[in-house]
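Notes continue from the previous slide.

Worked example: a multi-chain complex. Inputs as given:
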Amino acid sequence: MIAIIGAGKMGEALLAGMLAKGHAPGDVLVTEPRVEHAGELRRRYGVEVVPAQDAAKRADTLLLALKPQDMLALLDEIGPHVGTDRLVISVAAGLTTAVMESHLPAGVPVVRAMPNTPALMGQGMTAVAGGAHTGAAHLDRAEQLLGTVGEVIRVGEQHMDTVTAISGSGPAYFYFIAETMIEAGVAMGMPRATAQKLVGQTITGAAAMLAESGEHPVVLREAVTSPGGTTAAALRELERHGVRTAFTDAIEAARDRSRELSGS
Ligand SMILES: NC(=O)C1=CN([C@@H]2O[C@H](COP(=O)(O)OP(=O)(O)OC[C@H]3O[C@@H](n4cnc5c(N)ncnc54)[C@H](OP(=O)(O)O)[C@@H]3O)[C@@H](O)[C@H]2O)C=CC1
Ligand SMILES: O=C(O)[C@@H]1CCC=N1
C-alpha cells in the first residue's frame, strides 16, 4: 500500500500518473486536509482519502508531497506510527534526508526524490538519493515506484539542489519560453491559436530531435542557423540581451533557494 501525503500540484500529478500506469486505486491512500479537494480526489480517482496518521499506519511506502515548510510538522505528527520496515520518500525541495531523519524514529529509511510535473503524462524526470538508512532495496523500490511516471536516475544527495533547479523547476522555464514566443507572434498580428499551435509543435519537435538524435544541442542549433539568415539574426539578439547569462543566473537562484529551504 502506498500513501501520498499532500495531493497538491506535484502529489496529484504523481497520483494521476501512477493510476494511469496501472496502479490500482485500492492500493493508494491519499491525505489531503481540504475537505472539498479531498472529495474531488475521491470522485476523480476512486482513492481513499484518510488522515495522515492513518495513512502512516496502513501504508508501507509513504510518498510525501507537502511544501517543505509543512513537512517537518507532518513528520513529527506521523513519526510515532512509522517503523523501520517502512519507506519514506519525500519530494520536497531542499529538505535533506538528514533533517527528515532527525524528525523520524531512528533507522527509518528516507529517500529524497525530485520529480517534475510531466509525471502526469508519464513523461516525468525524477532523481533519487538515499539517506543514512536506505539500502539498495529501498532505492530500487523508489525507482520502481517513480519509474511508473517517467525516467528515474540516482544521484548523490549533494546534487539534489542542482537537480531541483534544472529538472524540478525546468518545465516552468520551457513554459516561460513558450509563452514568450506565443506573445511575440500575437504582437506581430498572428491569431493566438495559430501562434500556440506553431510554438507547441516546435517545442515537441525540438524535444524529439534532442532525445532521439543523441546530438549535442549546439549541433542541432547550428543545423537551424543558415548562413546570413533569420536564426542567426535572432540568436545575435538573445546573446546581446544576455539570455544565456540570465538562464545560468536563474538556475543558480533556484539551486540557492533549494538550499535555503533545507532549514524549513
Ligand atoms: N510543483 C512542482 O513542479 C514540484 C514540486 N515539488 C515539491 O512538491 C511539494 C509540493 O509542491 P506543490 O505540489 O507545488 O505545492 P502545493 O501547495 O500544490 O501542494 C501541497 C499540498 O500539501 C497539502 N498539505 C498541506 N499540509 C498538509 C498536511 N498536514 N497533510 C497533508 N497534506 C497537506 C496542501 O493542501 P492544501 O492546499 O489543502 O493546504 C496541498 O494540497 C513541495 O515540497 C515541492 O518542493 C517537487 C518537484 C516538482
Ligand atoms: O518551485 C518549487 O519550489 C518546486 C520544486 C521544484 C519545482 N517546483
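Summary box: The longest helix spans residues 192-213. The pocket of NDP (ligand 1) is lined by residues 5-11, 31-34, 37, 52, 65-68, 70, 74, 91-93, 114-117, 168 (CB under 6 Å).
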